[in-house]
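The instructor's notes for this session suggest beginning with a concrete chain rather than abstract definitions. Hand out the sequence below and ask the class to guess, before any prediction is shown, which regions might be ordered.
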Amino acid sequence: MGQVAKQHTVSSLRAKGKKDLAALNIRLQSLCDRLDEMSTILDLYEIINYSYGLPHLNPDSKETVKDTANVVVKIFDKMVAEVMLKDIDIAHSQPKPIICKFV
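After discussion, reveal the predicted structure:
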C-alpha cells in the first residue's frame, strides 16, 4: 500500500471516529437530559410522599409513618415535653434524619 493510500485510510478512519464520537455525545446528552427529568420527578414524588404520608420510595423500608411518629413521641417524652400522636400531622425518617410536621 502506498503512502497516499495509507494517509487516505488513516484520514477516513479518523473521520469515521469523529462521526461515531459525535453520535455518542448526542446519545449521552440525551441520556443526561432524561436522567435530569427523572431526578426532578423523584424529587416531586418525595415532596408529595412527605406531605401526604404515602409509602416510601425504598420498598425495603419496614418503618411506617406511625412508627416514626411513635419515635418522635418517645423523643419528646425524654425531653420532658408533652407531645402526643394527635399532635403530629406526619413524621418520616426516609431519608434520615426524622422530619416531623406538627398540627
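Then share the key points. Residues 65 and 92 are 6 Å apart (CA to CA). Residues 1-52 form one domain.
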